[in-house]
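Q: Here's a chain of 313 amino acids. Please give me its 3D structure as C-alpha cells.
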Amino acid sequence: MPPPFELQGHRGARGLKPENTLPGFETALDLGVTSVETDVHLTRDAVPVLMHDPHISERLCRLLPGATAPDPAAGPAVASLTLAQLRGYRADRNPAPGRFPQQDVQPTPLALAFAGRRGIDAFAIPTLAELFDFVREYAGAAGEAAGKSAEQRRRAESLIFDLELKRVPFRPESVGDDYDGESPGLLERRVVEAVRSAGVAGRVRVRSFDHRSVAAARRLEPALEGAVLVQGTAPVRPADLAQQAGAAAYCPDFAFVDAALVRQCHAQGVRVLPWTVNEVADAEQLLAWGVGGATTDYPDRLGRWLRGRGLRF
C-alpha cells in the first residue's frame, strides 16, 4: 500500500485566511492537513517569527491602535524590529484579492482564545514557539473545548511543521545574523532551539532555497527532515540536489515537474513535494506521476478531492 498523500497547507491556508497567522493555521488544522508550511525570519532580538516577506508592508499588515511601531508604508525590515515592535502589527490584509477572493478575516475560536491568553492580537505575527504551543493546545483539552473533533485533534497531534528558512545569500541583512554559507547561522540555531524546547524535532522539516541552510540545520539537529526548494527550473539531477543537502524531499514549483523527474527522484529514494498546487486537475496529474504530496493554498479543495477518490492523507 502506498504511503498517505501529504496534504500541506501553504502558509496555513492562504486561500482562506491571512497567511502565516493563527487563524490560518487553525483553518488548515480544521481541514485535516497532514502538514503546514510556514516561513521563518529572525527579529532584531533573535526570535524566530512566521513571516514570508523580509519587510513589513501595507500589503499584509496594519498598525494596531496605539502602536508605536514604524508605519508599514515605510517597509521596515523584520530583522530590524524587536518582537515587541512586531506586536504592533495586525497581519490581516489580503495582498491579492483577485487571486484569493475567498480569504476572510474572521478570527477562529481557538486562535482568539489562545491570543487572548497570551495578550496578543489574534492576527499578530506569531513566533515559531507560539505555533508549536498553538498546535499542542489544538490537539488537547483546549481544542476539545473549542469544538474540535477527536479526529481533528488526532491529526493535529501528528502534524508535520514544514519550516522555510528565509535565506537570500546576496541579502544577508534580510536575516541579520552571522551565517557564512557553511556553519549554521543564528537563524538555524534559534530554530533548532525552539524545536528542541517544544520537543517536536521528529515532526519538523526544514526547507530553503539556500540548500546549505538545510544542511546546516540538520547538522545541528539530525532528527530534522530536510527538503530543498527549487523554482523556475528542472535540474538535470534533481535528487542529487536533495542528497547533497542531506535532504529527503525535493520541493519544486509544480510547473517544472514531469513523470521522468519523479521517477528519477524515487529511484534515489527522494520524495517529490511540489508547490503551490491549487487546481484539482493539476493535483490529479501530479498524483498519477507519483508525487508524495502537494503544498496548496486551498486544502479544502484538495482535501475534498482526495476524500472523493478514497485516498489516504
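Q: Can you summarize the key feature?
A: The CA atoms of residues 24 and 280 lie 21 Å apart.
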